[in-house]
Amino acid sequence: MDESIEIIQQKLSLTTKQYKTVTLFICAILFFILPIASFQVGIPGDEPIDTQYGIESLNFYKSLGSDTSFVTLTALNKQTFPYQKYYGSLFEAGSVEISLLLGTPIYKTRHILIALCGAILILFTVLFTAELNGWMAAFISVLLLISSPTLIGNSYFNSKDIPMAMGFIAALYFFIKLLKQLPSYSLLTITGCIAGIAFTIGIRIGGFMLVGYLIVFLLYFISDNDEVRKQLVSSPKKIIRFLFTIFMICFLGLFIGCLFYPNFFLHGFNHISEAMSIAKRFPVKILMLFRGELIYANEIKWNYLPISMGITFPITVLIGILIFYILVFIRRKIFSWQDFILVYCVLFLLVYVAVTHLLIYNSWRHVMFIYPVVIATAAIGYSRFYLSIKKTTLRALLILFFAAMTIKTLAWMVINHPYEYIYFNEIEGGVKGAYGNYDTDYQQLASSESFQWLLHSKEFMNDTVKNKILLTNNIALMCVPQYLKDSIEIKQTSFLRMNYRPMNYAILSTIYLEKDLIKNFFPPKKVIHEVKVDGVPISVVIKRENNFLIKGKYYFDQSQLDSAFNYLLKANAYDDNDFRIWPLLGHCYFLKGYPHYALDLTNRYIHYFPDDSEVLHELNLIHEKADSAMGINNNRQ
After folding, report:
1. Are 612 and 606 in contact (CB under 8 A)?
2. Residue pair 92/51 in contact by the 8 Å Cβ criterion
3. Are residues 105 and 174 in the same domain?
4. How far apart are CA 316 and CA 405, in angstroms?
5. What does the DSSP 8-state code read for residue 442?
6. Span between the terminal Cα atoms of the chain, in Å
7. Three-class DSSP category at 104
8. Do residue 488 and residue 368 come from a single domain?
9. Is residue 90 located within the same domain as residue 180?
10. Which among 516, 522, 520, 524 is positioned nearest to 610, based on CA atoms?
11. 89 occurs within a structural domain
12. Sign of the torsion angle spanned by Cα atoms 50, 55, 58, 63
């Protein structure tokens, strides 16, 4: 099969050698482009936690186990994160150590290292594809990879999913090398298999599934190849040697990977079972916006993952996958072991996630390790389809379509850098179409850009208030000392509670907001700066011009009705779209004997917040008073 591919490719405009040269050249450039591109990326919400875990893990190793502060990890203003110890510390501790050795800022260092992992990931995906289907398919795969916004965007900041995906595809590449070398195998290939498994597990415990993949690949390959099977079982010595080699690959890969969990040294193999259990049912509940509704991660249905992939994979990737599976069906009589690996890798994971209801956060980032195989599948689909086309015109049309869609996606990535990871494809109508229906900047990267803008804005620098208060719903922004200045205090808030709290400025994103809130109330009044993607705001800077609502709420809580009513009227006159005013002002109207005004304001509030039991109870009282007043009027008439 491999020889026939090479012969056909030699008849094309580019030879196999040229395809290889161009592909590897693109890969080499990415080792410079991705780290440089990562400089513009802000600090994601998870990064202070991951960084602190790296520091505490490194302290554990350096103290030879005496410093166990990682067990009850403290970060983000002294919050504890007891489940962080179930993550591998390979990248987290390693990046801290490199930062200390080089004397470079920790967050910049992390982002550069993550970007390098992204470049290595792309390289191994290319090599994996070439091993399966030749360098023409590998060339297509690198084009699909560099025009995959979600992957590239995560390669600037995601210290778990990108390194894990890198280790995963590297392991799969060496697995393929092992299969093709059977019945013999080189030391380099065995070492690569061990290193790939160990590295992946050193990031996340889910890397254990590589052992299962290896065993399944071996069983299928041997059963499908009579010559290899006969040579492997030709003598008891060869069987024992083969089985021992596979056992050592799996054992050493697993064992070395576990060494990057400080908790493994405290609890031994019990840590592994606990980590796997935690990974399946992570106790931390995270709200996610899906189809316009906020849901907890443990409430997602089987269709969450396929839908998320379907609206965020580039169209070129989706079509390539479709072509591959159509061709597999057509050529099902010659279903190869290469086809089996591509199909099994992806479908097994999707079925496993659906059947076990595996906890997934924020689109498909937790299964990003399978995306390189998806890319290889799409690239091979295009390659096979192209080679099956006989007419030059049809080939040209395929190339034009692929080139146009790739250039379009690349242009979007350049225009919207560094927020590539927010991408939604044409099926969803881009980010603008997804806005209010799905999470966009769920890691709140744009908050860093907003903060930098605020610090350097004329409005802020000319502000004569000495002790300014900045409210934000980005937890990472609160905890980065290098950003803080003596003249500003950063406090955490939510969009719902923001206007009740003293502040001079606020930096907010749409995280944890439902569709109605985003569509009708975001951004709020007096926005002085916006960070936009596809024309919609993902982060805004707000300046407060008065304290009418705060004073109204204060007097309301003190049961000083007249003062509360006066300030709430002023607040409503300033911004009658501030939903926070409505229940308070409605209550004041109710107590002053104006049930119809109270009814109007309270009904408006309940329309958007139907689960607010306190306001619902008050609404019933208002209805009763309004009905009573109506009855009195009717009697008078």
Report:
1. yes
2. yes
3. yes
4. 7
5. T
6. 96
7. coil
8. no
9. yes
10. 516
11. yes
12. negative
Domain of 471, in residue numbers: 446-543
Structure confidence by residue, pLDDT tens digits, 507-558: 999 988 889 889 999 998 889 999 999 999 999 999 999 999 999 999 998 9
Residue 376 sits in the same domain as residue 488: no
Q: Would you say residue 180 lies in a domain? A: yes
For 447-493, the pLDDT digits (tens) are 989 988 998 899 888 888 888 899 988 777 665 554 455 678 888 88
d(CA 497, CA 446): 21
Nearest CA among 442, 415, 419 for reference residue 360: 442
CA–CA distance, 397 with 386 (Å, rounded to integer):
10
**Nearest of 411, 488, 480 to residue 447 by alpha carbon:** 480
Indicate the helix (H) or strand (E) that contains 247: helix 236-258
Q: Does residue 537 sit in the same domain as residue 564?
A: no
Total domains, the chain:
3
CA-to-CA dists, residue 39 to 107, 111, 297, 446, 447, angstroms:
10, 7, 31, 14, 15
* DSSP reduced 3-state for 533: strand
| Statement to judge: residues 34 and 106 lie in one domain | yes
One-letter amino acid at 619 equals L
Output the 3-class SS for 306-353.
HHHHHHHCCHHHHHHHHHHHHHHHHCHHHCCHHHHHHHHHHHHHHHHH
Q: What is the pLDDT of residue 479?
A: 55
Name the H helices within 491-594: 515-521, 548-557, 561-574, 581-591
Coil, helix or strand at residue 300: coil
- Do 532 and 590 lie in a common domain? no
Residue 605 is part of a domain; what is its CATH number?
1.25.40.10
Tokens linked to 428: 């969803």
Q: Are residues 267 and 308 in the same domain?
A: yes
Peptide bond into 183 cis (omega under 30): yes
Q: Which two tokens stand for residue 196?
A: 């790939």
pTM: 0.91
User: Please, which residues have CB within 8 angstroms of residue 160's CB and are 6 or more apart in sequence?
Assistant: 50, 87, 91, 203, 204
Amino acid at residue number 32 = F
The band of 626, judged by pLDDT with boundaries at 50, 70 and 90, is low
Rg of the chain over Cα atoms, rounded to whole angstroms, equals 29
Residue 436 placed within a domain: no
| Burial of 256 per CB tally in 10 Å (0-12, 13-18, 19+) | middle
Cα–Cα distance for residue pair 360/286, rounded to 1 Å? 10
